[in-house]
Amino acid sequence: MGWVRVIDRVMATGQEALCRLKHCSSGAIETARLVRVAEGDCNWRTAGDRCEVSYDWDVIEWFDDTSQLGGDWSPTTGIKHDS
Asked: What pTM did the predictor assign?
């Protein structure tokens, strides 16, 4: 499917995806693998070590790889790799 803006569609709780984050003061954009959570004080955690994402960062997009491409899809290169 491709990149999805968070304001258009929120990822399901427990789902892991490659996400784009924007820093609130500098406007810098970073990419990180995150997990959507439903906790009182946070909505996103890092996929690797489950750390809470700083409030200085807003998740603006996530990569939906649930398309019917088959195989492994690489959002960073846009190349499909057959399994």
From this structure: 0.75
Domain housing 33: 2-66
Residue 80 lies in a domain: no
Per-residue DSSP letters for the chain? -EEEETTT-PPPTT-EEEEEEEETTT--EEEEEEEE---SS-SEEETTT-PBPPTTEEEEEEEE--SS--SEEETTTTEEE--
What is d(CA 78, CA 52) in angstroms, rounded to the nearest whole number? 28
- Contact present, 65 and 6 (Cβ < 8 Å): no
pLDDT at 17: 95
Domain total for the chain? 1
β 2-5/16-23 pair status: unpaired
Is 75 within a domain?
Answer: no
Answer yes or no: is 73 within a domain.
Answer: no
